[in-house]
Write a structure and sequence with these properties.
The complex is a heterotrimer.
Chain A lengths: L8 H28 L5 H10 L3 H29 L6 H23 L1
Chain B lengths: L2 E13 L4 E11 L4 H11 L19 E4 L2 E4 L5 H4 L4 E5 L6 E3 L2 E2 L2 H9 L22 H9 L7 H5 L1 H5 L6 H11 L7 H8 L13 H5 L6 H17 L4
Helix pairs in contact in B: 3-7, 4-7, 7-8, 7-10, 8-10
Chain C lengths: L3 H28 L6 H8 L3 H30 L3 H27 L1
Classes of the chains: A mainly alpha, B alpha+beta, C mainly alpha.
């Protein structure tokens, strides 16, 4: 069966929302664990953070910033859709959400290097 | 009307829910031909046992919807010219519904969900009362009016990925109907209906893919209706009424 | 498989997190210059009631939001039954909450 409706930007933005949410849920325990390293010894956390200075890790971090951004702006879109009167500009909002998360990600990269 | 000699390559899904396959037929192309014309031609000239449903042929009855090249459509109002790809057509029964035979779906669960969503008007007055005076400019009446032209064709239901992921989900058509009644001042089952539509397979499951709106042949917007129900049910819950 | 209460918990936790995530994004973009360091992070957060409340609320909201989101995915993609769905989301939520609280204590106290 052809999946024509899944090529629609409104379908795609919802799929991106789900995937970004899933990846963030998987990332969070790691994030919390790393910060928890400082419980015993700040040096342990610092040692880990040194590792994040490498360019590859910085790009991965920019990816995480992008995930958080796309979930935030995509989520604002959903809240507006559900709680505000209907707007016919849904596709514009979807594109804006994707664009803003890209901006956040690039801003992070520019500061990181 | 000129008769073209071009032949359409038409694949039709035949068989039952458990066993089906595509059969291909060559159908003469004609001017202003609809998908329903094509299906009827196949039945009259090639495959007398082909099962399909239609009644009015003019987009009023809602019985001839099928998947055409993977998209749900009224076959009577879809011109071949509009959907033809490289001279080919693929015609299948509606998605998300059990197939009885060939192009005919069992609509039982679709209509059962209208009942589950309390899609029935509950009168608060009798025939002896005066007519209810509701202005056409009343905001609630205008919201109901925007959603009221549904003819139960199940195109939205076939387009909906939330139904595809959860077959118990009430679906866009039944919820859209509930939204029109939730905006009807004469109706007496407001909170009962909100409770019915917000149960665990109800409106809260909608992902707002908006495929229902994209494909609705009557250009209704069930996604907006469902968002409206989410708002009304949330408000009712926060007020302690649900 | 999302009823009214789960839906509201999901949306209210989302609303709570909107300003928190904006703050987090801005802080990350600000703090990444010259690389992250433990001293820099801990100098900001140690002994700060404000950051403690900020991250405490954040951890609590994200746990609710993440657990309910995961529940929807487990149902729609893997068709788990209600008992399994509820046990897994509670388990994931509690582990995340514990790890999150531990992290907040580590950077604030």
């Amino acid at each position: 069966m052809s999946l024509a409706h899944r090529k629609d930007s409104l379908w795609i933005v919802q799929f991106v929302h789900r995937i970004s949410g899933l990846l963030l849920v998987l990332f969070l325990p790691v994030h919390f664990y790393v910060l928890g390293l400082a419980l015993n010894d700040a040096a342990e956390l610092d040692q880990f953070l040194k590792w994040t200075d490498s360019p590859a890790v910085k790009f991965a971090e920019a990816g995480l910033v992008g995930l958080l951004g796309v979930h935030l702006f995509g989520g604002l879109r959903i809240l507006a859709l559900e709680f505000l009167p209907w707007s016919p500009r849904q596709k514009t909002y979807a594109a804006t959400a994707l664009a803003l998360s890209f901006v956040a990600s690039v801003a992070f990269l520019l500061r990181a290097f | 009307m000129s008769q073209s000699k071009e032949l359409l390559q038409v694949s039709v899904r035949r068989g039952t829910e458990d066993e089906s396959g595509l059969s291909t037929y060559e159908v003469p192309q004609q001017e202003s031909q609809t998908i329903l014309d094509v299906v009827t031609w196949i039945q009259r000239h090639r495959e007398p046992s082909l099962s399909y449903r239609f009644a009015c042929r003019v987009g009023m009855c809602g019985s001839c919807a099928m998947m055409v090249n993977g998209e749900p459509r009224w076959t009577c109002r879809t011109h071949v010219q509009k959907v033809l790809r490289d001279g080919r057509l693929r015609i299948e029964p509606l998605r998300n519904l059990p197939v009885i035979r060939d192009l005919v779906c069992d609509m039982t669960e679709f209509f059962d969900k209208w009942t589950r969503a309390k899609g029935v008007f509950e009168p608060t007055e009798t025939r002896d009362d005066e007519f209810a005076a509701i202005k056409p400019s009343d905001p609630k009446r205008m919201q109901a009016n925007a959603a009221i032209e549904c003819i139960n064709c199940a195109v939205c239901y076939a387009a909906c990925d939330t139904v595809n992921l959860n077959r118990a989900y009430l679906g866009p058509a039944a919820l859209n109907r509930a939204w029109t009644l939730a905006n009807d001042d004469r109706d007496g089952a407001y909170y009962d209906r909100l409770a019915a539509v917000s149960e665990s397979d109800g409106c809260m499951n909608c992902h707002s893919h908006q495929s229902c709106m994209t494909y609705c042949p009557n250009e209704l917007n069930p996604t907006a209706s469902i968002a409206g129900l989410k708002r009304l049910a949330s408000l009712a819950y926060l007020k302690g009424k649900l | 498989m999302v009823d009214l209460r789960l839906y509201l918990a999901q949306r209210i936790s989302a609303l709570v997190m909107v300003p928190l995530v904006f703050g987090h994004l801005i802080l990350m973009i600000y703090a990444v210059q010259n690389g992250f360091s433990a001293d820099e992070i801990l100098a900001r957060t140690k002994g700060s009631l404000g950051w403690g409340l900020y991250y405490g609320l954040f951890v609590f909201a994200v746990t609710i939001h993440g657990a309910i989101g995961l529940r929807a995915i487990l149902f729609e993609w893997f068709g788990l039954n209600k008992t399994l769905l509820n046990s897994i989301s509670w388990a994931v939520g509690l582990v995340m909450l514990a790890l999150g609280i531990r992290a907040v204590i580590a950077v604030v106290l």
